[in-house]
Amino acid sequence: MVTSGEVQNFPYSSYETAMEKLSSLITRQTRGEQPPIAEKLQKMSMYLKILGLEEDINGLKIIHVAGTKGKVSDMMERGIPNGSTCIFCEAILRECGFRTGVFISPHLIDVRERFRIDGMDIAEDKFLQYMWDCWKKLQENTTKQLPMPPLFLFLTLLAFKIFISEQVDAAIIEVGLGGKDDATNVIKEPIVCGITSLGMDHTEVLGETLGEIASHKAGIFKPKVPAYTVPQPSEAMDVILERANELKVPLEVTEPLDHKTLKGLELQLFGDHQFLNAGLAVSLSRCWLQRTGNWQKLFQNDFRDPDLPDEFIRGLSTARFSGRAQIVYDTPQKSGSSKMVSENCGGDLIFYLDGAHSPESMEACAKWFSNAVGRHIIVSHSSLSDKNAEAPSENGHFQPESKTVEEFEKSFKQILLFNCFSVRDPQILLPQLVNTCASSGIHFSKALFVPSMSKYNKVTSGVSVVPSDHCGVDLSWQFNLQRIWEKIHGKEMTPLLEKDLKMDDKEILPPHEFLLDENASNCGRSNKYSSCSAVMPSLPLTIRWLRDSVKKHPSISLQVLVTGSLHLVGDVLKLLKK
């Protein structure tokens, strides 16, 4: 590795070794437990001084964004993390010719996703270079009073190190949790601040009311630094306005982006709520360009002109965000022969992935899924006369190749693949999902409840080994989810014995016919699966079982919604890439 022309010999070179070191920084606390925040920002300042970044950080031209990881707004559609606002800003400024750096969380597959340079995850070699440089300097200067920083603090420091070293023109920084006491709030002189839609999330840390949550978010405001927000419930807006007045912050409330301003193009991030996020991103980007003196250099019109520059339109229409309203086609490569397609390819397996985990975001996810599968079915049936018809462009990564007439003569079945953390309330999430989908005429054939692979005690990478040992896994939470699901559908399950809460034999997987029979009359019933749902022992087995099912039954096309947790979405994406 080379830095300023000098080869750096770091004591550790393996990427997995770096993941182990990062994992050692994870604090041992129960999810939902409030972490200690005393002196956090003071410690962040000391860490920055150790790394020699305390002056350089002031040279970064920062857009600082706070919001709720699962938005609520009484006036708008809901449900995507403030990360999408950051991604919109990134895409706009890149189209304007600027080098961008983005720090967002969480990551889905690889920790490098948190650090984006010019729209791409940071390269592995550069990540290792900067990570070990920070690690070595911090480790050499730790004391009892100043130990190694916890994981998120270290990653925040690393983001500053990366953006300063890579000499980005614009640094777009997403708050981790809250705002006032967040590690990113060590930023003293941002160019502009933004607050996305606020909702009732992380209440165990931020407070039980929207006012308390808004107080944390408005904590990122800096004296006289412009700020933008979106329409908020009055309880939240009153707090935001009060804080802005205290600091003499020029605060503006942005309106949703008018789709007509895109001149016929579309947002690649789905949902009406994304027009709210896009509108905020447009205001933040305009302000950044104006305050850095770049608007006048690039554009002739006033920066408040409602007409969007072409660069803005291109950015908004090309921005993508993995794991949020993403569609992945798991269909194997086709050979071109309709006979071979029919015999070897089997049915289609399509994954619809969205990390919704709050009531508001679940509602938005359900609307997106219903719309997406509805369009797919309509287009599929209307394409019977054209054997080479292709599915429409969707808000995902991979599009299917040309399909044959035989492939369109299918039975489409919607399957739910679900898990959520115990701090969430599935008795609210699952009914919200079912009812919203039903209002659009979409009904799930089956629901599969599965444990996630991700662990909070380990930072993983895209090449980390996928655990295959599922013996003895405690599935009591998954059975609880199943009971709630069955109750929604008017069924009561037999109480389970303790021995039933663990699975250690893949024979407990339901037969493939389980997906075909709406009443499960041919596949029997047990404590493991019922007419509406099944508890699966592991995620890798579940993906394999779904793939085998469509191969064995070429007449079906499975449309699988993966939701409830970004960790689950990341795990599925990792398996699909294997």
Question: What would you say this structure looks like, in words?
Answer:
- With 578 residues, the chain is α/β, with parallel strands linked by helices.
- The chain is 37% helix and 12% strand.
- It is built from 18 helices and 18 strands.
- It has helices at 15-23, 40-50, 83-95, 124-140, 151-165, 203-206, 210-217, 234-246, 273-291, 295-298, 310-318, 338-345, 359-382, 405-408, 426-439, 476-488, 539-552, 566-577, and strands at residues 2-3, 6-7, 62-66, 100-103, 115-117, 120-121, 170-174, 192-195, 227-229, 251-253, 326-329, 348-353, 411-418, 446-449, 473-474, 502-503, 533-535, 556-563.
- The strands form 4 sheets. An 8-stranded mixed sheet has the order 6-5-4-7-3-8-9-10.
- The radius of gyration is 25 Å and the shape is globular.
Keywords:
about 575 residues; alpha/beta; 8-stranded mixed beta sheet; 6-stranded mixed beta sheet; 18 helices; disordered N terminus
Unreliable spans: 1-7, 69-81, 333-346, 387-401, 403-408, 520-527
Helices, by number, come to: 18
Q: Any idea what the radius of gyration is?
A: 25 Å
Strand order across the largest sheet: 6-5-4-7-3-8-9-10
Mean pLDDT: 81
Instruction: Name the helicity range.
Output: 25-40%
Total strand count, please?
18
Main sheet properties: 8 strands, mixed
What general outline do the C-alpha atoms trace? globular
Blueprint (SSEs and pairs):
Blueprint: E1 2-3, E2 6-7, H1 15-23, H2 40-50, E3 62-66, H3 83-95, E4 100-103, E5 115-117, E6 120-121, H4 124-140, H5 151-165, E7 170-174, E8 192-195, H6 203-206, H7 210-217, E9 227-229, H8 234-246, E10 251-253, H9 273-291, H10 295-298, H11 310-318, E11 326-329, H12 338-345, E12 348-353, H13 359-382, H14 405-408, E13 411-418, H15 426-439, E14 446-449, E15 473-474, H16 476-488, E16 502-503, E17 533-535, H17 539-552, E18 556-563, H18 566-577
Parallel strand pairs: 3-7, 3-8, 4-7, 8-9, 9-10, 12-18, 13-14, 13-18, 14-17
Antiparallel strand pairs: 1-2, 4-5, 5-6, 11-12, 15-16
